[in-house]
Specification:
single chain; mainly alpha; Ferritin; 6 helices; DUF4142 domain-containing protein
């Protein structure tokens, strides 16, 4: 799955998001009123971040059930807690009149994990969501942080980057410990 990372939890963050692909596959993320226009780049960021976060939360819930590995479950718990916080922060940063979608996970990514159990699940989860998803999220958040047009969203992206970078490092460490090569699952 590909995501051009976005913001946080229960609707914003992790997962490998391809902004154009994901944005078109989901409901319009950032609706605005005539009095409160939002630049397309910012709308795309809200959509991508919300989808990535929602996907990360739902995948973490799957990991709690489909994995037997305590390290994978610990990582998933971290993702669940942190992405939920990030989703709330994104919602608070959204300008008045902008809807931040929730529960808009990338179903193709989740579907690819649902039938897996044990080590097969762990490898796919670590690779797709842990490493690749966070790598892409960093790129999306850096882009919004540098080039976003809305000051609140730009700041939210900047403020979320350390958490996403920490998740990426955690995922890399977990992949190394479990012998998982990112992008191969």
């Amino acid at each position: 799955m590909k995501f051009t990372y976005v913001i946080v939890c229960t609707g914003l963050y992790v997962a490998t998001l391809a902004a154009p692909t994901l944005a078109s596959a989901q409901t319009e993320a950032a609706s605005t009123t005539g009095a409160n226009p939002l630049a397309q780049q910012d709308k795309d960021f809200v959509q991508t971040a919300s989808m990535a976060g929602s996907t990360e939360i739902d995948a973490a819930k799957l990991a709690m059930h489909n994995s037997q590995d305590k390290d994978v479950k610990s990582f998933a718990h971290h993702m669940l807690v942190d992405h939920t916080k990030l989703a709330l922060q994104m919602k608070m940063a959204a300008p008045h009149g902008v809807t931040v979608p929730k529960d808009n996970s990338d179903t193709s990514t989740l579907d690819s994990l649902k039938g897996l159990k044990g080590k097969a699940f762990d490898q796919a989860y670590i690779s797709k969501l842990g490493v690749e998803g966070h790598k892409e999220a960093i790129a999306a958040f850096e882009k919004e942080s540098s080039n976003g047009q809305n000051a609140k969203l730009k700041k939210a992206a900047h403020d979320a980057l350390p958490t996403i970078e920490k998740h990426y490092q955690m995922a890399q460490d977990l992949a190394s410990k479990k012998g998982v090569t990112a992008g191969t699952q």
